[in-house]
Design a protein that fits this description.
This protein is an alpha+beta fold and 619 residues long. It has three domains: 197 residues, Aldehyde Ferredoxin Oxidoreductase,  A, domain 1, CATH 3.60.9.10; 190 residues, Aldehyde Ferredoxin Oxidoreductase Protein, subunit A, domain 2, CATH 1.10.569; 182 residues, Aldehyde Ferredoxin Oxidoreductase Protein, subunit A, domain 3 (Orthogonal Bundle). It has 27 helices and 17 strands. A six-stranded mixed β-sheet has the order 2-1-6-3-4-5. β16 and β17 form a beta hairpin. α2 crosses α20, α2 packs parallel to α23 and α11 packs parallel to α13. The mean pLDDT is 97.
């Protein structure tokens, strides 16, 4: 390729910034790691396994924050906007890759870098200015108390360019809240506390301007591949729904199917679903559509509440916001959800974690564990939108009850006790997304074994929800979950968006994902080779967790999912008992060639995948 790197799609260079030493260096991307781990989440896992020692403090200077693109980023391949922010998570205590869209990742590649490694800690608040090959560490003391959007505005004024791309943190990241996010322009690395890691390094922002391009070995092949994939997207009903309504497109159908999580998952049907549906959102608040780089789906909605107590301007709300602050809290006003979305962005906090923390507090209030004395006078009754918004602001400020909720529901419940642990909808410290698993055993074991805890991007419910796979049959669900894991992790390493699931999945790595990788890189991967890469990536991430002390016992589900059946609706009676889950885990470990006692990779599996170096740490 023109840059001297062996494969297309790569810049062949990493940028390393040591904030303790105030030093900037550039180093080559390893060609062998690119071939074995691709980029994004896979390459990040391999690099950080070497560079982050076991058992370090996630908010200490030994942790590192790695922003990584993939070979497909910056090309015309559809939905190729995604990139990763990866570090040891203060929420889970293990490796976490937080995926984000927008334009920041491609801009970093245009500046000449496949990834950015941030290490150490600055003495005072700073921000990075990456202008192609010129990199500066600048003072951010004047930005340190600003919300993310105000900080972006000031930096753009200082640089004199409205078109630069900026990653920022808010008060939550500054204060080390374990579920703080990084806002990249208007998109977010929203899960796992990557904003807290960034804040622990006294790093307020990273501004990027790139004027380069991405080289591929055969532009006509990439162009023809793009045309074919865009045609799939243009004619797929699920993708059309995303374009028209955004990710809340299925609120009403999920409610009708009895799988819309409600009242902190006490039930899965919401009487007020009409008030928070994609259709209502389109009618009442949506003013336009926005797309990420190289994406024709336009799933992001630009929404405005022009006046009143819920006056707000946001990009969204996405489904997870509608679920978390809507049905989970029994709030049926889309305008209130827009307002609380704005509050979360201004403080820089994870919408899912914040909403689940509020819902947990509401249930504690319902059950008499909290009184108005505990809530600071707030009436935390289900459906009280104003109290929900106020409590979210308290979380952002870490005031009163908000200071407890800022720890996350798992740790808050440990402090409160009194049976409140039963109300926690969390796995490995990460609160669950709005996708049921009580009716779906394959999805359940995927949630339980997933490295990021409650993440619907380590497993997808699509196969069981659609009826492609029989949900009533337990046999084969470990294999199903494993193969869904594989297409997701390969997509997160390419890096392409999971909302293009009709293109890239949904059952296993499909030809479209392999074709996109081959076209951009010049590789000639077949299915077996692509599968082995994905399996290697998944095992590498599991090795990191095993080195941190994670075992089979950490692969679990919320108590509610194992002991409380769905009480009403089409899925009435559904649950995944602990006994059922243990059997599913045995299937999963067997299929993966992992030790069933520990739940971790065996020496033989590591040798098969070329990961022998990790055996000394975990076997």
């Amino acid at each position: 390729m023109k840059n001297g790197f062996k494969y297309g799609g790569y810049k062949g260079q990493l940028l390393r910034v040591n904030l303790s030493k105030n030093a900037v260096t550039k180093e080559p991307l390893r060609e062998d790691w690119a071939r074995d781990f691709v980029g994004g989440a896979g390459y990040s896992a391999r690099l950080l396994y070497d560079e982050i020692p076991g058992r370090v403090d996630a908010l200490g200077p030994q942790n590192k924050l790695f922003f990584m693109t993939g070979p497909v980023n910056g090309t015309m391949i559809p939905a190729a906007s995604r990139s990763t922010a990866c570090a040891k998570s203060p929420l889970t205590g293990s490796l976490f890759h937080s995926i984000f869209g927008g334009y920041w990742g491609p801009e970093l590649k245009f500046a000449g870098y496949d990834g950015l490694i941030v290490e150490g800690k600055a003495d005072k608040p700073v921000y990075l200015w990456i202008d192609d090959d010129q990199v500066e560490i600048r003072s951010a003391e004047h930005l340190w108390g600003k919300n993310p959007f105000k900080a972006q505005e000031i930096i753009r004024q200082e640089i004199g360019d409205e078109n630069i791309r900026i990653a920022t943190i808010g008060e939550a990241g500054k204060n080390g809240m374990p579920y703080a996010i990084i806002l990249l322009d208007i998109r977010a690395a929203g899960r796992g506390g990557m904003g807290a890691v960034m804040g622990s390094k006294n790093l307020k922002a990273i501004a990027v301007r790139g004027t380069g391009s991405v080289s591929v070995p055969n532009m006509l092949r990439v162009y023809n591949t793009t045309l074919r994939l865009n045609q799939i997207a243009a004619t797929n009903p699920a993708v059309k729904g995303l374009s028209e309504y955004g990710t809340p497109r299925n609120v009403l159908s999920m409610n009708a199917a009895g799988i819309l999580p409600t009242r902190n998952w006490q039930t899965e049907m919401f009487k007020g679903a009409d008030g928070i549906s994609g259709e209502t959102m389109k009618e009442q608040v949506v003013k336009g559509h926005r797309a990420c780089f190289a994406c024709s789906i336009n799933c992001t909605k630009y929404s405005v509440v022009p006046s009143g107590k819920y006056k707000s301007i946001i990009n969204g709300p996405d489904y997870e916001t509608v679920y978390g602050f809507g049905s989970i809290c029994e709030v049926d006003d889309i305008r209130a959800i827009c307002k609380v979305d704005e509050v979360c962005d201004e403080y820089g906090i994870d919408l899912i974690q914040a909403s689940m923390s509020v819902a947990w507090a509401m249930e504690c209030y319902e059950k008499g564990i909290f009184t108005k004395k505990d809530t600071g006078g707030l009436d935390l009754a289900w459906g009280n939108a104003d109290a929900m918004i106020h409590l979210t602001e308290m979380i952002g400020k870490r005031e009163g009850l908000g200071a407890l909720l800022a720890k996350g529901t798992r740790d808050a419940a440990k402090i409160v006790g009194k049976g409140s642990e039963r109300f926690v909808i969390s796995n490995k410290g990460v609160d669950g997304p709005g996708h049921s698993c009580r009716p779906w055993p394959g999805t359940a074991v995927g949630y339980a074994t997933g490295p990021r805890g409650g993440s619907h991007h380590d497993i997808r419910p699509t196969l069981e929800k659609s009826g492609v796979v029989d949900r009533t049959v337990l046999e084969g669900k470990g294999a199903m979950a494993s193969e869904v894991n594989h297409w997701l992790i390969l997509a997160d390493s390419a890096v392409v968006c999971h909302l293009g699931e009709p293109i890239w999945g949904p059952a296993k790595i499909n030809d479209n994902l392999i074709d996109a990788l081959n076209a951009v890189t010049g590789w000639n991967l077949d299915y077996e080779q692509a599968h082995k890469i994905a399996e290697r990536q998944w095992n590498m991430i599991r090795c990191f967790a095993a080195r941190e002390g994670f075992t089979r016992n950490d692969d679990t589900l919320p108590i509610r999912f194992m002991e409380e059946p769905v009480p009403e609706g089409p899925m009435k009676g559904s649950l995944i008992s602990k006994e059922t889950l243990e059997g599913l885990k045995d299937q999963y470990y067997d299929y993966r060639g992992w030790d069933k006692k520990t739940g971790n990779p065996s020496k033989a599996k590591l040798a098969e995948l070329g990961l022998e170096f990790a055996a000394k740490d975990i076997c």
